[in-house]
Amino acid sequence: MAQFICRDVSLGYDGEVIAEHISFEINAGDYLCIVGENGSGKSTLVRAMLKLHEPMSGEITTGDGVSRTDVGYLPQQTEVQRDFPASVREIVLSGFTGHLGARPFYSREQKAAAVRAMEQLGIAHLARRCYRELSCGQQQRVLLARALCAAKKILLLDEPAAGLDPKVTGEMYSLIENFNREDGTTIIMVSHDIAAAVRYATHILHIGHKRNFFGTKEEYIKSEDGRAFIQLSGEDEIRT
Amino acid sequence: MSVSLIFEKLALYFEYPFIRNALIVGVLISLCSSLLGVTLVLKRFSFIGDGLSHVAFGALAVATVLGISNDMIVIIPVTILCAVLLLKSSSKAKIKGDASLAMLSVSAMAVGYLILNVFSTSSNISGDICTTLFGSTSILTLSRSDVWISIVMSAAVIIIFLLFYNKIFAVTFDEAFSAAVGIRAGVYNMLIAIVTAVIIVLAMNLVGSLLISALVIFPSLSAMRVYKSFRAVVICSAVLSVLCSAIGIIISILASTPVGSTIVIANIVTFSIFSAVGALVGHRRGA
Ligand SMILES: Nc1ncnc2c1ncn2[C@@H]1O[C@H](COP(=O)(O)OP(=O)(O)OP(=O)(O)O)[C@@H](O)[C@H]1O
Ligand SMILES: [Mg+2]
């Protein structure tokens, strides 16, 4: 049974359609990359999958016993966060808020798990530092650690590599690949990095103006949309 | 005045219940408003104290004209409604939160003033308006029931804040994320809005909108100059707020200055000191 099923979904704001006829299925352990131009509706789709945005038509269902507390989310950055007084530890711990229920405070196990998540991402030494004083790459790791605390089953990542240098980007991708390979975490990632998308993903969803593409990455590389998009991105070498 | 003389004078003043009341209420209101203040400032709602008290003034004008004797029945719900609408719409609205707040505040003030002018039987309209700015009952003339209401409301605010501290942090830091992991962000925004409205209406009567705005903004801004974690900022702003209010009230008694302004000035001085400290610390860290 699939974890996420999207059936003929149309997305838009204020009655204006921005993307339509999106259909796909994600199974446990898949690595899906969502690609497409700026403004094609990738973030909106992610938000719709998290029930933060209502699709105009079609339906998005979860299966395989997936509930909200199984999904970790790494949003595309918002501006308010930049001058927020918050320590790294506080932010990573806040990943557990969804698991608190009626309890007011975090448990000892949750605090220990937060420390483990920070160690995993190599930011344990930054725990007491202020988030806003970190570099872009460090900040992304903090938000990824938070997403990890929120859930181990599915990670929804909206441009996790935005603003990172090539080296840190590579590290980020291999971290994410690790979660997918070793822990069997389902990864759903929005990315402009088409090279990385075809390298790491098992499936690709391309949201386009005229039509969408969904399939395995092998199919995508052969498809017309895929070839055009890959060429546009100047990534000829990856076709080989 | 020598130090011992000041202490003698203070000891004498503390014999008076109205001074103890002023201290209790001043400290409690500043504690509550500083707790909320951190969230409000971070949500870009620094002016909510000002705006909502003007809304409350508009509601008061309507209540007066309609001849409703217990005006709180009108004022509290209207203010809560405005607070909820403001905080709720801020993320989606076409008009930014601060702009809609400014609009609401000015409109409520204008409509309220107009209504009072046209319909009111009261002869002291400018007095009524002065009241919204500086408080109807001066903090030095509080009644026993004022004190008890403040104690109960403050206890409620503090308990709510402690119980929901972690969720309030999550929602304030990143609303989208908290909503995604199943926190009903709307509910907590509503909670913050309601508590804010209640505190502001209470405080407006007691200390006026000038002071309540200062109490919401200053302690958290001062704390943010120096401290970089949410918890440290919350604790520091609570401590600062209480200290500034207590010191302000004591100075105003000793020097016979207006209470509200003295408290605000204590906050301005603290802010300057914390800014300087923050700049120094930041400079040293940067070097
Ligand atoms: N809150 C909103 N209200 C109205 N329109 C919006 C809103 N958010 C996004 N849009 C519009 O919807 C379209 C898709 O936005 P979305 O953020 O989903 O794009 P995206 O594919 O994630 O782009 P990017 O690659 O730049 O992140 C854009 O044209 C944008 O202007
Ligand atoms: Mg996007």
What order do the helices and strands come in, and which of them pair?
The complex is a heterodimer of chains A (240) and B (287).
Chain A: E1 4-13, E2 16-26, E3 31-35, H1 42-49, E4 57-62, E5 71-74, H2 88-93, H3 97-100, H4 108-120, H5 136-150, E6 154-158, H6 166-182, E7 186-190, H7 194-200, E8 203-206, E9 213-216, H8 217-222, H9 224-232
Parallel strand pairs in A: 3-7, 3-8, 5-6, 6-7
Antiparallel strand pairs in A: 1-2, 1-4, 8-9
Helix pairs in contact in A: 4-5
Chain B: H1 3-14, H2 17-42, H3 48-66, H4 72-89, H5 97-119, H6 125-134, H7 144-163, H8 165-173, H9 175-180, H10 185-207, H11 209-226, H12 230-255, H13 259-286
Helix pairs in contact in B: 2-7, 2-10, 2-11, 2-12, 3-4, 3-5, 3-10, 3-11, 4-10, 6-10, 7-10, 10-11, 11-12, 11-13, 12-13
The structure holds adenosine-5'-triphosphate and magnesium ion.
Structure description:
The complex is a heterodimer of chains A (240) and B (287). Chain A is α/β, with parallel strands linked by helices. Chain A contains 9 helices and 9 strands. In chain A, the strands form 2 sheets. Chain A has a 6-stranded mixed sheet, sandwiched between helices. A 3-stranded antiparallel sheet of chain A has the order 2-1-4, covered by helices on one side. In chain A, strand 1 (4-13) and strand 2 (16-26) form a beta hairpin. In chain A, helix 4 (108-120) crosses helix 5. Chain B has 13 helices and no strands. In chain B, helix 2 runs antiparallel to helix 12, helix 3 runs parallel beside helix 5 (97-119) and helix 6 crosses helix 10 (185-207). The termini of chain B are far apart. Classes of the chains: A alpha/beta (240), B mainly alpha (287). Chain A binds chain B through residues 47, 50, 52, 67-69, 71-73, 75, 78, 80-81, 84-87, 89-91, 93-95, 97-98, 100, 104-106, 128-130, 132-133, 146, 150-151, 156, and chain B through 42-44, 162-167, 169-170, 172-174, 176-183, 223-224, 227-233. The structure holds adenosine-5'-triphosphate and magnesium ion.
